[in-house]
Amino acid sequence: MKFLQYKNIKISYTDQGKGSAIVLLHGFLENKNMWEAFLPEFSKKNRVITIDLLGHGSTECLGYVHSMEDQSDTVHAVLQELKIRKVVLVGHSMGGYISLAFAELYPDFMKGLVLLNSTSLSDSIERKKNRDRAIAAVKQNYIAFVKMSIGNLFSEDNRERLAEEIEKVKSQALKTPLQGVVASLEGMKIRKDRQVILQFANFPILLVLGEKDEVLLYDDNLAQIEGTAVKLTSLPDGHMSTIENKNELSVVLLEFFKSI
User: What distance, in Å, lies between the first and last C-alpha atoms of the chain?
Assistant: First the structure.
């Protein structure tokens, strides 16, 4: 684990392997440890960077709202520190929103993009209201909110089968400070619609969706790639493809990396 001083806070990241640069970005209530199972295989032929995003893991909070642009500037700072000029970004959920913001702000850095259980769409009015409800709920009972939020990320079929894994995810999520949780909810609520990137990107994009995802409904997210060159991979379970469909996902991502 390494640290970068950035705007008076510490950013935590890892850097291993040699070859084309792959940057793995975790989602809300996650941290860079979520990628540990993938690192040995991914780093055989690639340079793999994982980053704790603002207010998550071992990276400190920057403010009371962490916009997707703020987060992408953090990613850019790490890449500058490592003197990396071209990357494939893999973003899980919120990490995908950040990857899209990065692609908009720093297009010359982009070699490829994977939106993993993520979307280019902005929050609907109803989802924005749900973010506000979530902010109120986490301020009232932080532990209950985090535990409930994590449970809902897995398909109903897997909640018993993966009970041990889910407890591990909850344990990691509870390391996220209250300020980091609220700042991310505020940032996701105000994020821009970035469907235009899917339409006009000059780099390959892969969208990975879970057919039983209760967070980002499968059918609702198909329309964004109609008429685009974006490739779609559908996996049979929920929002946590990195755990629910780990082996299939690993194969899909390695094939995408090789194809670029």
Answer: 28
Pairing of strands 46-51, 9-16: antiparallel
DSSP state, residue 164: H
List all residues 6 or more positions away from 136 whose beta carbon is below 8 Å from its beta carbon.
none
Give the pairing of strands 231-235 and 205-210: parallel
* Dist. CA 23–CA 113, nearest whole Å: 10
The 10s digit of each residue's pLDDT in 90-127 is 999 999 999 999 999 999 999 999 999 999 999 999 99
Measured between alpha carbons, how far is 158 from 109 in angstroms, rounded to an integer? Answer: 37
Verdict on whether the full-model pTM lies above 0.70: yes
SS3 state at 177: coil
User: Judging by DSSP bridges, how do beta strands 2-6 and 46-51 pair with one another?
Assistant: unpaired
Q: What angle do CA 58, 106, 207 make, to 5 degrees?
A: 75
Contact 74, 54 (CB under 8 A): yes
Go through the chain and tell me how many residues it has. Answer: 260
Q: What token pair was written down for 81?
A: 């520190």
